[in-house]
Amino acid sequence: MKYILSSVSALLLLGIMGCTDLEEGIYGQQVADDFYATPIGVNAALADVYAEIRGDWNGKGIAGADRGWFDLNESCTDEMMIPTREDGAWEDNGIWRAMYTHTWTGSQEFIGNTWNWLYRAVFKGNLAVELLEGAGADPAQIAEARVLRAYFYYMLMDGWGDVPFYTQNNVTVDQIPQTDRAEIYDWVVSELETYVPQLDETIGGKFYGRFNKWAGYALMSKVFINSEEYSGVGEWQKVINACDAIIGSNNFSLVQTMYDEAGEEAIFGDRLSDEEVILSMFVDGQVAPRNIIGIRTLHGPHSTALFGFGGWNGSTVHQDFYLKYDEDDKRREQWLVGLQPGDVTYNLTISSLTSAGITDGVRSSKYFPVPPFDGNSSTSNDFPIFRYADILLTKAEAILRSGGSESDARALVDEVRNRAGLDDFAGTMTLEEIYDERGRELCWEGHRRQDMIRFGTFLQAHDFKPVSDAKYKLFPIPAVAIANNPTLTQNDGY
Amino acid sequence: MNHFYKKMGQQTAWNWGAEWLKKSLFLCLVLATFVASAQSVTVSGKITDATDGSGLPGVTIQEKGTSNGTTTDFDGNFQLTVSSSDAVLVISSVGFASQEIVVGNQTFISISLTEDVTALGEIVVIGYGTVQKSDLTGSVDRINSENLNPGPITNPLQQLNGRAAGVNINQVGSEPGQGPAIRIRGITSLIGGNDPLVVVDGVQGDMGLLRQVPPSEIESVEILKDASATAIYGSRGAAGVVIITTKKGVRGTAQVEYAGVYSFESISNSYDMMNADQWRFLAAERGISESADYGGDTDWFDEITRNGSTQTHNVAISGGNENFTYRSSITAILQEGIILNSSSENYIARFQGTQTLNDKVSFTFNLNTSTSVNDYNGAGRIGEALDRRPTDPIYTDNPLYDDTGDYFIDPNSFAYINPLARTKEIVDGDRTNNLLGSMRLDYKIIDGLTASAFGSWRRTARKYESYTSARTTLENARNIGDASTVPDINDLPDGIAFQENNYSDEKLYNLILNYEKSFGDHSFNFVGVNEYQIQTYEGNSLRSRGFLVDNEGNLQSMQAADPTLFIAGDVRSYKSDRKLASFLGRVNYSFKDRYYISASFRRDGSSVFGANNKWANFFATSVAWRISDEAFMSSVGFIDNLKLRVGYGETGNQQGLGPLNSVRLANTAGTAFFGGSLISNFAITQNENADLRWEVKKMYNAGIDFGLMDSKLTGTVDFFYGKTSDLLFDYQVPQPPYPFGTIKANIGEVLNQGIELSLNYYLIDEADWGVTLGGNLSSIRTEVLDLNGSLNGLPLETDYVVWGSGGTTGVASTNNAINHLIIGQPLGAFYLFKHAGVDQDGNQIIDDLDGDGVVEDGNRENDDRYLAGQPLPKLTWAFTPTARFKSFDMSMVLRGALGHQIYNARKATLSTLSGLGQRNMLVSAASTGIENITYASDYWLEDGDYIRLENLSFGYNVNTANIKTFKSLRVSFIATNLFVITKYSGIDPELSVSGGGGFGIDYGIYPRTRSYAIGVNATF
Q1: Is residue A260 scored above 60 in pLDDT?
Q2: Nearest CA to A272 among A332, A310, A215?
Q3: A21 burial class (0-12, 13-18, 19+ CB within 10 angstroms)?
Q4: Is B682 at the interface with chain A, CB within 8 A?
Q5: In this prediction, does ipTM exceed 0.85?
Q6: B531/B579 Cα distance (integer angstroms)
Q7: Which of A65, B106, B507, B891 places its Cα 20 to 30 Å from the Cα of A465?
């Protein structure tokens, strides 16, 4: 009896005490608060911001993946078009045509992708700044995080104008006011002017693909050259100062051998030249894939013959743009026209935007695929964000706009011309000539939309594009963003 | 008073009562004088089975109105001392009609019991206990083994098809190894999971557990449908509970049983695609360049399909004696799919035994091990085959590449896949080993009070392998690597090898205390349980690519891959766990076997609930009234049984919550190039929500069980009204400030209400022949009640949420939404543009419904869209008659669904003529004249109503009286899916009704088969 009783009580007791352990096993995952409190975490937070520049395959990233920032800023210009082919390829619900003819709406995919990408980048930038400052890190690192964050806000105000602005995470949406473009511009300027001088000066090596001081000045030059658009006041002297900081450091020069696809002196390729490229985005086809620009332009059999996988036969450029190159211009070689390996012949003329011939259109070899490849999903070409040739041309432009010496401006442009195998410019240097030179030199590098807006050609009609309304100088705030935050005011006209 | 005195006389063990007794002994003696002359009588007797006169063990003999009773021994004998000769003995046993007899002058009573035709005495398994069917207060359907669907059964759910009202068994296509989905009383949740909890002999698990149950070993299936029955399972019971009880050992001489089925399967329906001549003709008409015609003549669908077969074999042996019974079985279920290179094999071995140690303690154990091996080739192969031009040859003399064999590849098509190559050359399959063991100790503490301890342990190990060689013609498996270092493209390494291992470890233990007591007209039962479960999941995967010798042998030497081709993510591992702790209790009380009340309570704590909501409480209650026992009903002769049941309960659903969903994590997220080199990147990858909790379902149920005309007609009607609130859903949040666009939050409500009816009628019930008519129907409305709420003060509102979209190439992503969640409308209502015709360019003309001159773009609320239908049927029914004539028997399941539509997206894609140059089209495409589809319109919305003859079987019981080896032998012929009557033009009108995003849209399914099978059942 006692034995039975005690065993029953024991069972009951076991049951009642029972197990109420409800701890979740973490097993190799990192709880964010714990992780970011460690030095490794702090470093990782900064690295993550750079990973965000490369973004993901869903159109979030500066370049490389399609339907992101690069496409947003290039497909609405005269230097890149993706026509719908006669067999229906690239129809894609008309998104490419809508960009080219300036008929996009707030539900356009690229606009939503880029907006979401930039605000995710801002979130990570805020996190990195907070952690680095909280951990009392090296001022150069703090400066790096701050400049990165300013870079993202620069792209936001460049694209949309008045946007939500916040610098602290963990706030609710009503604490993030939609701020005027001019105010954001002022903030960006003050951040850059304070922190760019604190950035590290190393070029390449550990700073390949990172914001060093020279990349910071290059960013400043961009912000100031467009300042008339942003704030109404053109700060041309500040442009010249920023460019001079780079030129005067004697760290950069124009690489003289262009388009040597396999050589180390090449500007473009697997690793960009530290001599000429000031800031790059690192890509490796297998471990950090994100560059389809090169594959996208080649036609299937052409690329199969060369690399064993098919190209996408998408992006081309209209013949008018191609014909802006002088016959002797070495840069003309980057444009592929005529018979190619794989028995493919690219036609110079594009017959139509809605039903182009399969091999219509001149193709670009600027990002000619370099291995290692990720099948036909990515090559290893790195992407140039800021380049020395751009700095020279920007300074020339600022000189002319501020009424400075025409001959100084012409000398700068001549440096670029000479490198391209052309003689010095005969005649007076004009803004229009600089505009065209920028087009020829910096095509497919993400600068064209800004240039067209600044030089007033963005809304004009050209080849298949009619005249577009002034509202298109800014992108509309994505429909989804307004649906989720009704306090936002849409840009005029949308 | 008296009986307690008697008890003391019989059980002297209760020392702790003795003290109390001594004090009241005087009182007892005084009281004793008031009792009518108490002359105790000892009566003995024998209870036999009326059918064969054999003694019946385990029969209960009880003195009516007291707790004085005993049970018969092995031979059916008993002895009982009752209070007086006026005592009434109640003799009852499971499955037999009870009898009552007055003791009178008899000292030896002989009773023979007949089987209970009405089966009201049947025992029904409910959560953590059993109850007599007549005493049931909730809505529970019990399906016995003889009523389970016969045939080539590969998953126990197929045996339930059409057998229970309100239970929808949804088999989409006949892919080997893929079991059907089960939905009980509609769709309970949007993204939180709708699978019911599965309990097999006390072991709780998910749908995967069903694969370990051999279909021929099932004794009964109980489906708990209403919340008052499922509330006892707390936060896992919202979607219903399926309880499976397997056959147990039976004492007596050992018996060997064999059950086998062999079936031949063929595709029941396919698309009418153009052949080579038709394609050429249409292509010429449209001016498509001749270069797209490669001169072949191929029926791709035919090339990749074949006839299939299924065979199942089951051998079981059972036996035992008074103290030990066992049952052991070995099962093999083998399926060859109708697509080449697809198959499934499932081998299950189990051993179950029960040992009674003494009259207080018994011990049950269960061992189950199974291995299943699958080879996969799924619906994607069908899609690829339908898309391929019939003028493409299969083979060519001049292959484009050296390493793809002779398969034809079109150099001008982007990412061309040769369907036959893709189907034949792929190696893709897995092997899963399961081991399940459970033990249960039952201890009868005192009369009426039992304690049980139960523990179960289930371990699964799955190994998945796939090898993609260049010969599959998949582009990413061919020429991997650096073309600049190798002179010839064709010498680049090929092939991708991938292996994945998944392990799961599930432990459950519970302690049950069960107390039953009857006194007078009152009967009372209490159950108390403490339960704890822990499930751990872990696994790893590896991938390597680029082999010089391109064949699947590389799976066993993955290190032979090109070492320069490794990328981040090729090697992965993971581990996570879930824990659940529960306390629960249930009380049942009945008065005069006529009035019943039941109440249950459960408290669950789960590790996946957010930190702010770790513990959940669930409460349920139900009452029942056996109206037919009332005095006023005795004059109504044709009603034998009428019982009214009303119940209410709350249950929860936590399937949608994953481990660590509520915690902010810094996860590995690819790589970052930083500091001159590539490093692992860590990033916050989700918007976490610390308030995450279970979904709550509250359901009211009212039902009537009736039996009329001497129980020839029996049936049940149930009405239910259930609301799921705190629905898990992904809400869009503003970016900024959230880094990601959505967050999971518990907001929102869904309503399920409906009526179920099931009837059974013995039309003819003679000795030689009989016909019964049976059937059920249910009508359920599932409606989205609310999607709005707030999270931490942030209003989260949404309506007109896109629930299914796309699948129709060419439609702008701004206009491709097909079905939606709309507040106040059925779940997944079709909200579409109205097709008004085709213009001369072949573009759709869309009706401007709001008359403003413009057809608005947009997938959300849009005045140019209208409510065009719903994907869930308004009425589902099944008709299940049986017939028997001497040794022949026949049974049938005819079932159907009415009142719903299907969006035939597959037909849309196969009809857009602008793609003709690259693809094949339906023969009907030419006459639609549609070049491009630019809107998701109602043109492709079709009536989905259907009637299907699911199952038709004929059996013959061979007379084994003269055959020595066999005790019984039955031969049967079973046809499955004999025909479907429907207006739907796709290959089968039965699509997934799982409730998840995109249900109701036919994107292309694995074909359904028709099968003819022969079966043999023998006992030796």
Answers
A1: no
A2: A215
A3: exposed
A4: yes
A5: no
A6: 11
A7: A65
